[in-house]
Amino acid sequence: MQIWVDADACPGVIKDILYRAAERSGIPLILVANRPLRVPASPHIRTLQVPAGFDVADDKIAGSIEAGDLVITADIPLASQVIARGGTALDPRGTLYTKENIEEALTMRNFMNDLRGTGVQTGGPAPHSQSDRQAFANQLDRLLSARSRQQRQ
User: Fold this and answer.
1) Which end of the chain has the lower number of beta carbons within 10 A, N or C?
2) 3-class SS at 24?
3) CB neighbours (10 Å) of residue 2?
4) What is the mean pLDDT of residues 2-29?
């Protein structure tokens, strides 16, 4: 298992949680971005810089993951690709995307895009809150604990 991060839009507080989790668990953490990133020196953490462009980082992640990998992303189409490839997708606000809920999330995303395309102002996402951070940390802990239990069996 590796943890991949769609890092361009990932909040810094979430990256900090991921850095600590990689150190604690020893699971490789790969941050993919179209700009250089500063990360803690660690054998478990690396960055992968991709060229700037629409969906370049998403395409790199989708083409690189293997079944069982975890991807941190707020990009619902990327989350859908991850699930189709046998990976797990976790939103930085703590939403775990699954085979059961990804179609609904894609439908809502497409609906909102259509609304914006007609000129309706839908606003943006709410600021990242403490409860979002806690939800993410809890979900990440559940996923890593489940992985650890599977390895022991």
Assistant:
1) C
2) helix
3) 17
4) 95
| Higher local confidence (pLDDT), 121 or 22 | 22
CB atoms within 10 A of CB 87: 22
C-alpha closest to that of 78 among 5, 135, 27: 5
Instruction: Tell me the three state secondary structure of residue 3.
Output: strand
Q: What burial letters (b/e) apply to 102-140, b meaning 16+ CB within 10 Å?
A: beebeeeeeeeeeeeeeeeeeeeeeebeeebbebbbebb
Looking at residue 124, its pLDDT comes to 67
Q: Is 71 left (phi over 0), alpha (psi -120 to 50) or beta?
A: beta
pLDDT 10s digits, 118-149: 777 767 677 889 999 999 999 999 999 988 77
DSSP tally for the chain: helices H, then strands E? 5, 6
Which residue reads 């996923």 in tokens? 143
Output the furthest CA–CA distance in the chain (Å, rounded).
54
- 132: Cβ–Cβ under 8 A, 6 or more apart, which residues? 92, 93, 94
How far, rounded to the nearest angstrom, does the alpha carbon of residue 134 sit from its chain's CA centroid?
15
